[in-house]
Amino acid sequence: MHDKPLSQLAGHLLRRLPGASHPARRRVGPDRFGLDEEKVLRFTEDRLDPAEEPRLAQEVAEVLPLGWSLSPRAKERLHAVTEHLGGERRLLEWLDRHPGLPRLTARLVVLMGTLDRYSDDAEVVEALRASRAEDPFPAGLENVLPPGTSEETLGDISYRIDELLFERHTQDATRLALATTDWLRDAARRSAPSSAGISEMRDLMTHLHQDISEADAAA
After folding, report:
1. pLDDT digit of tens for each residue in the chain (219 aa)?
2. Exposure string (b/e) for 74-89, b if CB count within 10 Å is 16 or more?
3. CA-CA distances (angstroms) from residue 100 to 103, 105, 212, 216, 218?
4. Helices 153-166 and 122-134: crossing angle, nearest 10°?
5. Which SS3 state, helix, strand or coil, does residue 34 take?
6. What b/e sequence results for 28-57 when a residue is b if at least 16 CB atoms lie within 10 Å of its CB, and e otherwise?
7. I want to staple 102 with a disulfide (CB 3.0 to 4.6 A). Which of 13, 83, 95, 188 is the partner?
């Protein structure tokens, strides 16, 4: 994974808190997924066989999108792994070292953090409005975007990607993510004159599109 998206988003990456507009109403159900307690214990004590680490990374990637639906014990185990690795950013870097679902999930989480961050950027929202004036429903987003564009639009897309991961529709989440990076990158290119913030968005979307595409191809 390129360092730039991670460095830009430190402190925001796993902020998947349910907002007022996105209650966790669909995320209530049995805790069918979890982390193996013995495996987590050995990992946090640096006793896990290296051959078992990819399986633990797979389990972490499976539970990461489940958020508040996890049982308290599952949350504790995820927290233990995160703390052992040195925090949320290090957790994503660790997942990124393991091809397949772990790497793809890590890169999708980075994109979701980016979208949440830009939701509060008035300049970005205005650039998206201008882009949609020329192309109201960009490819791949026809059934996702509402008619209008507001400060909630990117947050809504982020939530939908997260929801698709939660529902185990990984390929649908990936397709939506790539369509979103294409849209934001195109909107940044159309914006003139391009400010530093819009240029940064264009660069981040270019990096993230490449990262997610590569992870998906190897999954």
Report:
1. 666 666 555 445 554 433 334 444 444 444 455 789 999 999 999 999 999 999 999 999 999 887 767 888 888 999 999 999 999 999 999 999 999 999 999 999 999 999 999 998 999 999 999 999 999 999 999 999 999 999 999 999 999 999 999 889 999 999 999 999 999 999 999 886 668 889 989 999 999 999 999 999 988
2. bbebbebbbebbeebb
3. 6, 9, 11, 8, 6
4. 90
5. coil
6. eeeeeebbeeebbeebeeeebeeeeeeebb
7. 95
The continuous run of DSSP H or E covering 97 comes out as none
Q: Is 193 helix (H, G, I), strand (E, B) or coil?
A: coil
Structural tokens at position 178: 């790539």
Say what the pLDDT of residue 33 is: 56
pTM of the predicted structure, to 2 decimals: 0.87
pLDDT of residue 66: 78
Report which DSSP code applies to 137: S
Residues with Cβ within 8 Å of residue 94, at least 6 apart in sequence: 57, 85
Query: What DSSP assignment string belongs to 36-59?
Result: -HHHHHHHHTT-S-GGGHHHHHHH
Q: CA–CA separation, 195 vs 211, rounded Å? A: 24
Give the CA diameter of the chain: 57
Q: Any idea of the CA torsion for 63, 66, 68, 72, to the nearest 10 degrees?
A: -30
